[in-house]
Structures are given as C-alpha cells and as structure tokens.
Amino acid sequence: MSTLNSELDRFYVDHKFNSKGKLSVALVITEHAKKRGLPLDAELLLTEGGGQVYGLGKGAVQSILARHGIDKVLAQEGGRTSRGSIGNMREYVGFLNTFSENELEVIERFWIEKVKIFFSGKPLKIRLDNSQSLRSMIRDLIQQAESRQKDSQGVYYVGAILQHLVGAKLDCALGIGHFSHNSFSTSDAQTGRNGDFFIGNVALHVTTSPTESIISRCQDNLERGHRPIIVTTKRGITLAEGLAENANLAARIDVFEIEQFIALNLYEFAKFDERGRTIAVSDLVGKYNEIVMQFETDPSLLIELQ
C-alpha cells in the first residue's frame, strides 16, 4: 500500500492534480473505474459530442464527497467547464489503468484526503487599504507566512512565497516567457543552476537566509560573466552584505530587500497613480497565484486579495 500511495503522490505532484478541476476529474474517473472495471477506455468517457468528460459535474462530485462526510462544494461545475478537463481525463486514465480493480478503494481515499487538504489550505491575505503603504502590505504578507511556518514544521512557506512573489513581479515587469519558473523545492535542489531566475546576463538568488553557499554561487556567476543579485528579507540584508564583504565581493553583488524590491515596482506599474495601485496589486497577486497553481501543490501558498 505504501508503494501505491507513493505512486499516487508522484502523479499528484508531477501532473499538478491539486486544483479543484483536476481533483474533480480524479474523483469521477475513479468512480467510473469502480463501476466499469479496469482498464478504462478514454474514448468511452466522452459525451456524445466529444466536448466534455462524461459524468463530470457538480452532482457527481458532491455525491462522492458526501459518502466520505464532506459537504463543502469542490467546484460549482464539478470541473465540467474547466479548460483541459478532457486532457486531464486522458492523462489520469492512462495512469489509473496501471493499477488493479482491488486497489480502487485505496485510490479513492487518496483523492478524498487531497480534497480535504484543498479545503483546509487557507490562503494568505492581502488587504487593499489606501491608508497602508505598499511596502507594509508586503511585510504583512511575509509575517503571515512566518507565523504559518512556525506552526508547520518542515514547510518553508516564507522561502516559497518570496521566490514566487519575485517571479510574479518579473513576469509583470517583463512579460511572460523571458525566464523559467520552478517549484520552491526544485529551486533548492538544483544548485547547479545560475540562479532562481536568470534573465539576460543577470542571475537572481532569492533567499530568506543568505549563506556562504549563495555567495559562492554569486562568485560562480561573476566568473561566468553574469551579474548576481540577491533578494532577501530585511533581516537577511546585513547577513548577505557581511558574507559578501568577507568574500571581497561587496562591490560586485547587488543585494535588495524584498519589501522594497516589490513595492517600488508596484508604484511603477501603477504609474505612481492612486487609481492604478489597486490594478497593480491585483495583477501581481493574480500572476503569483497562477505560478503557485502551476508549480506547487500546497493551496495554502495562494494569496487572497481583500
């Protein structure tokens, strides 16, 4: 069973089956498998017109959830109108067909647990308050993440949020397609890359706590003709600058504090106009949430704009 759950977890992460639409697909297709048996034929799981997944709707999804004591609505349309539902169905059917029918109950319980995680993942919040500075908005967001991290051992909320905030800001400033995004865990693991973000000849390193390893990577950047930038927290500024000084690189590495790094761009996006401020913050949050939904599996990393 542990092997089965490991394979399910791998599929869940690799195929980003953490959204309400994809979770709905997994529940309904697993239900089809329980009734029809395995293997399933994806072509027989399409409606007559071929434009939707057969049986995929709010009623079917809520019926499955009700059996497990869940009355919250996962998706108003049960994923029926979600773009890509047919592709998601085909992807999941191919995966599901590798198992046996006597494993379907365990598979269904796996998806029910993921739905519970989805419902329990309360987003962080940004409140649009014209009496509050943009910098203090970013500070409050980071403080929420720090508080949540203290209560969740082993989950590095702050680092993930900093990375994806910077990525969202860069997308808003430059447009999509100028650099690659990665999950926070991937970014940590792939230490051979030039930086968390690489644009032109600039390597950006986003970190909550600068280390000698980060400075060493900056040294590698310089030797390759790249320009290193470190973006960190207010507490990390002094540490980063001290480490850079010890390595005789203080004059060659730019170090920015995250609140200023984000807030100044928001002013620019808003054209320093009060009316543009709401749009600028909304665009940043929207892009951030898109990145999180694509590259992370924890919905509590999302931001709700109030």
List the helices and strands and how they pair.
Layout: H1 2-14, H2 20-36, H3 58-67, H4 85-96, H5 104-120, E1 124-126, H6 134-151, H7 157-174, H8 184-189, E2 197-199, E3 202-206, H9 212-223, E4 227-232, H10 234-246, E5 254-257, H11 258-269, H12 274-295, E6 303-305
Parallel strand pairs: 1-6, 3-4, 4-5
Antiparallel strand pairs: 2-3
Helix pairs in contact: 2-4, 2-5, 6-7, 6-11, 7-11, 7-12
Could you write a compact summary of the structure shown?
The chain is of the alpha/beta class and 306 residues long. It is built from 12 helices and 6 strands. The chain folds into 2 domains: 2-120, no CATH class; 124-305, Trna Endonuclease, Chain: A, domain 1, CATH 3.40.1350.
In words, what does this structure look like?
Helices cover about 55% and strands about 10% of the residues. The chain is of the alpha/beta class and about 300 residues long. It folds into two domains: about 1-120, no CATH class; about 125-305, 3-Layer(aba) Sandwich (Trna Endonuclease, Chain: A, domain 1). The strands form two sheets. The protein has a four-stranded mixed beta sheet. Strand 2 and strand 3 (about 200-205) form a beta hairpin. It is elongated, with a radius of gyration of 22 Å. The two termini are about 45 Å apart. Mean pLDDT is about 90; it is low at about 185-190.
